[in-house]
Amino acid sequence: MAKYILKRILYLFLTLFIIASITFFLMKLLPGTPFSNQNRMSADQLKIVKAQYGLDQSVGVQYVRYMVGLLHGNLGTSFQFNNEPVTALIGQRLAPSMQIGAQAMILGTVLGILLGAVAAIRKNTWVDTLATFISILGLSIPSFVLAVLLQFYLAYKWKIYPVALWDNFQSSVLPTLALTALPLGTVARFMRTEMVDVMSSDYIELAKSKGNPNWRVVAKHALRNSLIPVVTIIGPMAVSVMTGSMVVENIFSIPGIGEQFVKSITTNDYPTIMGLTIFYSFLLIIVYLIVDILYGLIDPRIRLGNGGKE
Amino acid sequence: MDQIPQIPKEKFKLVHDENNKEQEKIGTPSLTYMQDVRRRLFKNKVAVVCLTLLSIIVLISIFAPVIAPHDPNAQQVTLSNLPPKLGNLNIPGMNGYQNMGGHMVDAYKQAGAPKGTSFILGTDYLGRDLLSRIIYGTRLSLIVAVLATLVDLLIGVPYGIVSGWKGGRTDTVMQRIVEIVSSIPNLIVVILMMIVLKPGLTSIVIAIAITGWVTMARLIRAQTFQLKEQEYILAARTLGEPSMKIATKHLIPNLSSTIIIQTMFTIPNAIFFEAFLSFIGIGIPAPNASLGTLLSDGQKAFRFLPYQMWAPAIILSIIMIATNLLGDGLRDAFDPQSSEH
């Protein structure tokens, strides 16, 4: 186990190194300039500004510098946002993103498990059909479509929640709901398949024939055993919530990292784009790692040699 | 030795002659695998409905130049932001009336539109016909999806087959590459590619395909590993068929179900990415419409002109739902065991 974790952490750094390198060189290939009024600057001014950001050196030197900085946890300085260090920029904006992300993941998973379990228990009835329909809707309707609809009805028309901005819990409700649909759909679908499988297994038959009441069989045996594989889809779910949050944060003007990312893209702010790319990748790889380790711990049948996958 | 008395042939009689014939009779014509798949697919009502819906949408987008009532990029600024109007029919919400300061006003008359003008889904902020834009937008979104899926297939399938077929060191190296590519979040790769490449159709396709092939390659590799051990492959090898021929003649036909099913799940994914990129403004450049750009335009005016958002939102959702459900139906049809337990 320890060896496996060590190997995975090694891979993590390798992957991050590759991502950082690719991002760096891609950014150097970018057309356009980060300085919005370059045309009005004299050659000397341009030289000074370039020197300030270290853009006067050769690409090789810049690369080494960036990588060394990265090792020290320094992601460079933003070109646009008051010359702030990128790490500070991310730090300020992390909390709102994390909050709505976590709320959506938790809500989606819990509701998804319930929906999937109900569908499996009432298999081939209208309850099952309805639950399947809901999960397909959740899977299919993009979060930004949902976000706009929620904003129009719940905020603008019926004035239940604030339209946008970020101050208290109330303002996090709509973005959370918009992001919840996808995890809900994914989990419900997965849960149903697993649970149907488990419900037809021998130990459930045994538990039933011993005269256990139905709810107890479901709660003690079926639910528990179907929950284990659900852990594996947390990783992909985190990715989709993150994807969704980029637009959803924009729609609700939430000062989060997703909104920052989109803003940096439209303003050619290379250091921030690079920093956020690396940060996002880091976050996701960590999530995947934790999920794999968790899965190995929960279910000893899984051979870790296989990368924690089936 | 006593002679065994000969029994005349006529004395023998087949017992239950009729019964046997009945049992031995082949009642239904034997079906090939594909016929069986088709039969199961068409028995699935949901899949049939989705297939019909998608066919209609695809046909409309193929014949968009004939069907679209107006040029999707023709601007008529005087006729901007007109509400939906269906001929002279007086259907609430479709009669060209708009709520202005508390009472309903005929927006068409106010804009000074010539008599008889009507836009079924209204016009946008530049006076472009929304229905035509949606038809062309769907067309563009579908083109992106189909091209991205094709590139996916062209990279993923050969990659998976080679990796699975060769095995050993080749497989290890190829799988390490897959592992690294798949551990990079694909959205980030897509966005990076979009920033670097010139915005447009080709770059979206490249950006989506560059990460999308991994899943396909993985599935194909796993399948190839299984197929490799089958007798007919062994027979083909013993007969000295070249690997290339085995791959095209034996492997790909047997992989077709995996390929088709995976394709059905790649298409909605590509549609989503295109819409996503266009929505945040780095996708299809103006003035061309795609479902993503239409949504993003609609969202800006949603407060006051909700109809501009509804139409693209509904079409996008229908395409996504229908492809997902059809994918499910196809999976059940190809692999009936997957849903029978």
The helix content of chain A is over 70%
Tell me the CATH topology of the largest domain in chain B.
MetI-like fold
Share of helical residues of chain B: 55-70%
CATH architecture of chain A: Orthogonal Bundle
Q: How many β-strand runs of chain A?
A: 0
The H-level CATH homologous superfamily of chain A, spelled out, is MetI-like
Q: Describe the oligomeric state of these chains in a short phrase.
A: heterodimer
Secondary-structure element sequence of chain A? HHHHHHHHHHHH
Number of helices of chain B: 14
In percent, how much strand structure appears in the residues of chain B? under 5%
Count of the separate structural domains of chain A: 1
Main location (chain B): membrane
Subcellular location (chain B): Cell membrane
Transmembrane segments (chain B): 46-68, 140-165, 177-197, 203-220, 259-284, 304-326
Family (chain B): Belongs to the binding-protein-dependent transport system permease family. OppBC subfamily.
Description of the structure:
- The complex is a heterodimer of chains A (310) and B (341).
- In chain A, 74% of the residues lie in helices and 0% in strands.
- With 310 residues, chain A is an all-alpha fold.
- Chain B is mainly α and 341 residues long.
- Chain B has 2 domains: 45-82 and 129-334, Orthogonal Bundle (MetI-like fold), CATH 1.10.3720.10; 83-118, no CATH class.
- In chain B, 66% of the residues lie in helices and 2% in strands.
- In chain B, a hairpin with a 2-residue loop joins strand 1 and strand 2 (103-106).
- The radius of gyration of chain B is 29 Å and the shape is flat.
- The model of chain B has no long low-confidence stretch (mean pLDDT 80).
- The chains are: A mainly alpha (310), B mainly alpha (341).
- Chains A and B meet through helix 1, helix 5, helix 6, helix 10 and helix 11 of A and helix 7, helix 8, helix 11, helix 12 and helix 13 of B.
- Chain A: Its main location: membrane.
- Chain A: It is a multi-pass membrane protein.
- Chain A: Belongs to the binding-protein-dependent transport system permease family.
- Chain A: It comes from Companilactobacillus nuruki.
